[in-house]
Design goal:
Strands 2-8-7-6-5-3-4 form a 7-stranded mixed β-sheet, sandwiched between helices. A 3-stranded antiparallel β-sheet has the order 9-12-11. Strands 1-10 form a two-stranded parallel ribbon. The longest helix has 26 residues. With 533 residues, it is α/β, with parallel strands linked by helices. The chain folds into 3 domains: 164 residues, Aspartate Aminotransferase, domain 1 (Alpha-Beta Complex); 87 residues, Histone, subunit A, CATH 1.10.20.110; 258 residues, Type I PLP-dependent aspartate aminotransferase-like (Major domain) (Aspartate Aminotransferase, domain 2, 3-Layer(aba) Sandwich), CATH 3.40.640.10. Helix 9 links the parallel strand 3 and strand 4. Helix content is 46%, strand content 11%. It contains 21 helices and 12 strands. The relative contact order is 0.15. Helix 18 crosses helix 19.
């Protein structure tokens, strides 16, 4: 590939670059392709899936009993004593992990949430059958209570969670949540064309790209983590948030691609800023939080200003399920900001939502997310499909009933083993050490120039930068070594860096990646030496 072609390729999203790299890697059929590009985990949580399928079997039996007039048809299951019938069904095989989780789930709902068992089981059964629209449309009642407990449990480790509760909207994954949030913030004049928002970088590329679209036309500034500080954000960057022209701060925590959570000092600093600036909107995507030790979300520390986005995709190996949530504290400043709009804007918004409420001015922002997800007019058909919500509840219940945190420990161990394998044959100290308490290790950002400088000298680095485009290393890695990585520059990481996912390959693959990357760097160095003679 010519240098001009590499420059053109560098204008694309890293996810589109990855597709080109895959084509190049596939051109060498004699080599086994190692794709560490996209962060799709190669594991699945088995117990909640098995529970889902057994619950479906029970629900279908109940449905057939309720409608026997025609073959091939079932009806709405009878609610009376349905929990007893489910317990009898479960009792058949408690040694099975799915059945065991169903029993624990019933016990949790009864003992911890104080939910009427027949009400709870009826929601599970009708939900898994998908025999009705989602009611309430924002989220099924008992499912929301379970997901609420899961989020508070996982997002407030080591701190006291805020009083009150979070309202939750179940969405088609975290990316859908982001689209809904941007649209509703714009529609409700919390963000307007030409406004400035801050973005914590390096970051998942769409968060950089979305604000600049014609739909929003937002200006952005970066609040940049420092590689020298093991990817923490220095105080001097957080200070930028004091500027009143900045309307919102969006971040991924733990970060992507650096895969490091914000430390307590930084989280508290941000919380102090919003005490001074109650109009500052915080949006945090915490999908990788469960892979770190003692994770605390900004939503738990500054709940009045924070919109929380969470996806079940990575932790439970469920990218295909498309399960995400938006959570917003019941007592939040964003609702107050809408109430404090000038009368002209209030009138406009009242008209927008007038078909949904006799008092549209009292609609919460969380409910506006729901309405706007269906262009308001189709609000009555809003909501995540009920079978998806039931699977979400079962994922949540796996963690809530796992007193020993065995699933979490295993998930973290899987990732850490792979990181260790990647580092085994490296000759320099990594930016993120194995004992880093803030690291999620889901991704790793590899700074090629840093490695080259330490191993081969600054003269070689100067030559490399002068003679080659930043993407050249990734292109040759794909074309000559059949290894796929993502360009770090596309995430606003250093241009000469690459992002590896530690979720979708096995330990031996990461050893081979290190070996092949070292081989390629040596080949560049040999070119440099030959030209210098």
């Amino acid at each position: 590939m010519t240098r001009t072609e590499e420059k053109r390729l560098n204008t694309l999203s890293p996810f589109e670059v990855k597709n080109t790299l895959i084509k190049l890697a596939n051109s060498h059929h004699e080599l086994h392709m190692i794709n560490a590009g996209r962060g799709n985990p190669n594991w699945v949580a088995t117990a909640p899936r098995e529970a889902f399928f057994y619950l479906g079997q029970f629900a279908l039996e109940e449905s057939k009993k309720a409608f026997q007039d025609f073959d091939g048809f079932g009806g709405v299951p009878q609610k009376e004593q349905i929990s007893k019938r489910l317990r009898d069904f479960i009792q058949k095989d408690l040694s099975n992990e799915g059945m065991n989780l169903l029993k624990k789930s019933l016990d949790y709902a009864k003992d911890k949430l104080k939910i009427d068992e027949d009400d709870f089981v009826a929601e599970l059964v009708n939900g898994i059958l998908g025999d009705n629209y989602p009611v309430p449309d924002r989220m099924l009642k008992h499912t929301e209570s379970i997901v609420h407990d899961y989020l508070v449990s996982e997002m407030s480790s080591g701190i006291t969670p805020p009083s009150g509760k979070f309202d939750i909207f179940a969405t088609e994954g975290g990316t859908a949540a982001m689209v809904y949030i941007f649209n509703t913030l714009k529609s409700n004049h919390l963000l307007n064309e030409g406004d400035t928002i801050a973005i914590g970088t390096p970051v998942f590329t769409p968060y950089i790209e979305i604000p600049e679209l014609e739909d929003y036309k937002l200006k952005t500034i970066e609040v940049t983590a420092d590689e020298a500080l093991a990817w923490q954000i220095p105080d001097s960057e957080i200070e930028k948030l004091r500027d009143p022209k900045i309307k919102a701060f969006f971040l991924v925590n733990p970060s992507n691609p650096a895969s490091v959570k914000l430390n307590a000092k930084t989280l508290n600093f941000i919380a102090d800023v919003v005490k001074e600036r109650p109009d500052l909107i915080l949006l945090t995507d915490d999908v990788y939080g469960t892979f770190t030790d003692n994770f605390s979300s900004l939503a738990m520390i500054a709940p009045q200003n924070t919109i929380l986005v969470y996806s079940y995709s990575k932790y439970f190996g469920a990218t295909g399920w498309r399960l995400g949530v938006i959570a917003l504290h019941e007592n939040n400043n964003l609702d107050k900001m809408i109430q404090n709009h000038p009368q002209e804007i209030k009138d406009e918004l009242n008209e927008r939502y007038s078909t949904l409420s006799l008092e549209p001015e009292k609609m919460k922002l969380i409910d506006r997310f729901v309405a706007d997800s269906r262009a308001v007019a189709l609000n009555h058909t809003a909501g995540l499909s009920t079978p998806q919500q039931i699977q979400m509840a079962l994922f949540s219940l796996l963690s809530l009933t796992d007193k020993e945190e065995s699933y979490k420990k295993s998930a973290k161990q899987i990732i850490r083993r792979r990181y260790k394998a990647l580092l085994e044959s490296t000759q320099i100290e990594p930016i993120i050490s194995m004992d880093n308490k803030d690291a999620a290790f889901y991704y790793v950002e590899v700074d090629i120039l840093r490695i080259a400088s330490k191993l081969l000298g600054n003269d070689f680095v100067s030559w490399l930068v002068k003679e080659h485009e930043p993407l050249d290393f990734l292109i040759r890695l794909a074309e000559e070594k059949s290894v796929i990585a993502m360009p770090g520059g596309g995430f606003d990481a250093p241009e000469w860096s690459l992002r590896l996912s530690l979720a979708n390959l096995y330990a031996d693959d990461y050893r081979r990646i290190t070996k092949k990357g070292s081989e390629l760097l040596t080949e560049y160095y040999n070119e440099f030496i030959a030209l210098a003679k």
